[in-house]
Write a structure and sequence with these properties.
heterodimer, A: about 250 residues, alpha/beta, Rossmann fold, 2 domains, four-stranded antiparallel beta sheet, 10 strands, about 25% strand, B: about 300 residues, mainly alpha, two-stranded antiparallel ribbon, 12 helices, about 75% helix, transmembrane transporter activity (chain B), transmembrane helix (chain B), High-affinity branched-chain amino acid transport system permease protein LivH (chain B), amino-acid transport (chain B)
Chain lengths: ~250, ~300
């Protein structure tokens, strides 16, 4: 297990008396799609916040590529190769789709692009942004205001923004939330195309998507890991069915 | 109320307007982008003027003084941000007002200790001294024209920076979506520090430019700070464009109001009453204007996009 790209050990987080993350350990291998499921309030998003650096942990360690990053702020983790999307769609509605991605490319490259250069003329930056938009199927939408995109397109844009930071690990917080069947199929296709090229941690409530995509599934309940492993094994575990899947998996 | 006088006062109003803009631009960015009320912004203007006086006296040249005073104002802004202000971003507005008011008292006293309570004066640079004839019968000091031109140039530069450069895009994005910009790998704190320092430098620049025509004294930033707040409220908090329009509006209304409200009132009342009422009304005009703007557009003239 030593070659895991993400290694979370005995992680804890409490809000007052409520233990939201309770001694959680999990590993993600390079290229692996690791899904985290669990009922609402199980602490999935909190765990993602702790891994991405948005929230500080009370105890335990987060190791990324062998380096202890437990104490690093979010932007520093981004530079090491951890990108994330948010449960609540986070795009810049006043900027075009292309500008959204270009800004992320720039965030990654920092000073290697002229900070005070004229934004619309930086060809290399815009080319890279355009190719990422193409990857998520938004090439035709590049010059539209991001705020005018459909919900599904916004989620796809978020994924392009996350990819622009050149991550080795993608943390996706419910990328299919609030989508119709057709839209969610498009995003599932995007995720399938990314699978294997990036290590991915996926939080998702859509069980069909989770079991279609995941290499490994970890189940959280009240902040604790109650099962982890091969999707088929997890799916048939009686404990998991009692806690979460209920009749859906029967 | 001759035409010449109206023109001269209009130019004076413009000159006050661009100065207000230089101060308000930083204030509105800091308030709008970081939701931080910085009462100490006015002392940046005062300190800019002191730096100008000090460096000019030391080097004998206003322009060398300007070149030294600008980075000094920037450094002071950065220093204050790192030492004091960054610890206040997470606090409520009352804590911010109290702490930054403390900074005003501290810096007003500090300049009194360093340079004395007596006003300093800075000579108008040779090359910009004298007056030019703008039209027959209308003489106007070159230095005041230089202030107007410099202020307008800065406004154009600022507009370009904020709307068309990567840095400006990051600032605009960071203002509305700090968490997301942080997820792009941008150190949002450092970005805020830079914005802060830049705003402080602009206020300092206003102080430097005004030093040759006003007396440089402790507390000179306090009065103008109130005007700057009126400007950003009218313009819409967080909006550079709003700050520009509102600053010129306030500059003109205040200057022209003080000169001509008596004359206008004379049309409807006796001369003695008119001049007395005019004197009473003139200082209130900008606040009446602010109340009217807030009544019709509570978010200001150009509310910043959220």
């Amino acid at each position: 297990m030593s070659e895991a790209i993400l290694d979370v050990e005995n992680l804890n987080k409490s809000f007052g008396a409520l233990r939201v993350t309770d001694d959680v350990s999990l590993q993600v291998m390079p290229g692996e799609l690791h899904a985290i499921i669990g009922p609402n309030g199980a602490g999935k998003t909190t765990l993602l916040h702790q891994v991405s650096g948005l929230l500080a942990s009370d105890g335990g360690t987060v190791r990324f590529g062998g380096e202890d990053i437990t104490g690093l702020p979010m932007h520093a983790r981004v530079h090491r190769g951890i990108a994330r999307t948010f449960q609540i769609t986070s795009i810049l509605p006043g900027f075009t789709a292309l500008e959204n991605v270009a800004l992320a490319v720039q965030g990654r490259s920092g000073s290697s692009f002229r900070f005070f250069g004229i934004a619309s003329r930086e060809q290399a930056l815009n080319d890279e942004a355009a190719s990422l938009l193409d990857l998520v199927g938004l090439a035709a939408r590049a010059d539209l205001g991001a705020g005018t995109l459909s919900h599904g397109e916004k989620r796809a844009l978020e994924i392009a923004i996350a990819l622009a930071t050149k991550p080795r690990l993608l943390l996706l917080d419910e990328p299919l939330a609030g989508m119709g069947h057709e839209e969610s199929n498009k995003v599932i296709e995007i995720l399938r195309s990314l699978k294997g090229r990036y290590a991915i941690v996926l939080i998702e409530h859509d069980m069909d998507a989770v079991f279609a995509l995941a290499d490994r599934v970890t189940v959280l309940s009240y902040g604790r890991v109650i099962a982890s492993g091969d999707p088929a094994v997890v799916r048939s575990s009686p404990e998991v069915r009692a806690a979460y899947l209920g009749d859906e998996a029967a | 109320m001759s035409l010449t006088l109206v023109l001269v006062q209009t130019l004076n109003g413009l000159q006050l307007g661009v100065l207000l803009f230089l101060i308000a631009a930083g204030l509105t960015l800091v308030f709008g982008v970081m939701d931080f009320i910085n009462l100490a912004h006015g002392v940046q203007y005062m300190v800019g003027a002191y730096f100008a006086a000090w460096f000019t006296a030391m080097t004998g040249s206003f322009f060398v003084g300007l070149a030294l005073a600008l980075p000094s104002a920037l450094l002071l802004g950065l220093l204050l941000e790192i030492l004091v202000f960054r610890h206040l971003y997470g606090r409520d507005h009352l804590a911010q007002v109290l702490a930054t008011f403390g900074v005003i008292l501290f810096l007003n006293e500090a300049v009194r200790i360093l340079w004395g309570a007596a006003p300093l004066s800075v000579p108008v640079p040779e090359i910009l001294s004298g007056s030019i004839v703008l039209m027959p019968g209308l003489l106007y000091p070159v230095y005041r024209i230089a202030i107007i031109v410099a202020g307008l140039l800065i406004a154009v530069l600022l507009y370009f920076l904020v709307s068309h450069t990567r840095a400006g895009m990051l600032v605009r994005a960071g203002a509305t979506h700090p968490r997301m910009v942080s997820a792009l790998g941008v150190d949002i704190r450092r970005l805020f520090t830079l914005v802060f320092g830049f705003g402080a430098m602009l206020a300092g620049f206003a102080g430097i430019m005004i030093a040759p025509i006003l007396s440089v004294e402790p507390g000179m930033g306090d009065q103008i700070l109130i005007l700057a707040f009126v400007v950003i409220v009218i313009g819409g908090i967080g909006s550079i464009r709003g700050a520009f329009v509102a600053a010129l509006l306030i500059g003109l209304v205040d200057t022209l109001g003080r000169s001509f409200s008596g004359d206008l009132l004379r049309l409807v009342m006796s001369p003695a009453e008119a001049s007395q009422t005019g004197r009473a009304i003139a200082p209130m005009l900008i606040y009446v204007l602010m109340a009217a703007v807030l009544f019709f557009r509570p978010a200001g003239l150009f509310p910043a996009a959220r």
